Give the backbone structure.
Amino acid sequence: MTASATTLDLHIVQRIRKLAVLAGLIALLAVAIFTQSVGGPDAALHEGIEMLGLAAIILAIVGRGWCSLYIGGRKKAEIVSRGPYSITRNPLYIFSFIGAFGIGAQAGSLTVGALFVLLTVLIFTQTVRREEQFLKGSFGEAYAAYMARTPRFWPNFSLWRDEKELVVRPEFFLLTLRDGLVLLLAVPLFELIDKGQTEGWLKVLLHLP
C-alpha cells in the first residue's frame, strides 16, 4: 500500500472513530436519561460524583492542551517521544478517557462513568492499532523501537524525558482547547436530565450505583 493510500485510510479510520464516538455517546445518554443514581439527584453521593466528574473534565481539557504542545502538527512528520509521549504513546487518548469518565459521572453514577470510559477505550483501541500501522510504515524501525520501550496506554513514569525548548504551534493548541471545552457542555446537559427526572418529565427505569 502506498503512503498516500495509507494516509487516506487513516483519515477514513479517524472519521469512523468520530462517528462511532458520537453514536456511542448518544446511546449512553439514552441510558442516562432513563436511569438515576442510587439516592437520587439530591443525595450527597450523587453531587460528590458530579464534582469528581467535573474535576476529571477539567483535567482532561488541561491535559489534552498540554499534549498538543508536543504533538500539534507533528504526528505524521516525526516521532514525538518527549514530554507526555515519553511515558505513553497515546497521552491524548489517556486524557480523553479521563474526560469520558467526567462526562458519565455527571449522571451522579460511577457505573455510568465507567460505561463512558469503556466505550471510548473500545473505540480508541481500534483507532490506535490503525495509527500504529501507519506510523510503522512511515518511520520503520525507529517507530518500532519507540513502541517497544513505551506503553501504548498505561504510563510508565520512569521513562520520562523532556525537551529544554518546544516550538509551539498555537493553532493546534487552540483547536485542542476548543474541542476540550465542548466536554463542559455535559454539565448543563446532565443537570437538565436531573431536573427532568425530578419533575417527572423523564421516567426513571433503573437506579445505578
Notes: Helices lie at 3-33, 44-71, 91-105, 110-139, 141-149, 170-181, 186-199.
